[in-house]
Amino acid sequence: MENPLDGLVLPGGESTVQGKPLSDLGILEPLREKIQQDLPVLATCDGLILLAENVKNQEKRYLATLPVTVKRNAYGRQLGSFTTAFDFADLGQVPATFIRAPCISEVEDEVEILSKHQGKIIAARYRNQIELSFHPEVDKSDSIHSYFLKICQTK
Ligand code: GLN
Fold it and tell me: From the candidates 53, 106, 137, 152, which is the catalytic residue?
């Protein structure tokens, strides 16, 4: 990784699909190192699975830089996808769309919980890693992306 990175977005998708090339192309290790050196990361949905140290319903681990346990597909199948809104950190209400989303089921003490929905942790922050169960990019608000950009600019 020769070019300096200001930040990294790990988007939604399918963690098995995104994880395989990261692994096969030898990208996991250099990325893990950058994140451990505090590269800002915004991880949404599948990205949260790639970052998690533990995944409840699968053995495979990827970056494992985030001391949480996640549960894949915590809201059921694709047809169970939904959009809602809730308070996020100090940003007030943000819209959020969940698509076969994971949730965070356990966090270590140093992880800050940013939002919960229906009793499940759906947004958290650990150092410069922001992790979301949902997709902030499919709704009209850009407040979460602005929040992330501020973290990148202060690094
Ligand atoms: N269900 C996917 C997985 O477990 C994540 C879905 C998403 O990113 N929208 O990898």
Answer: 137
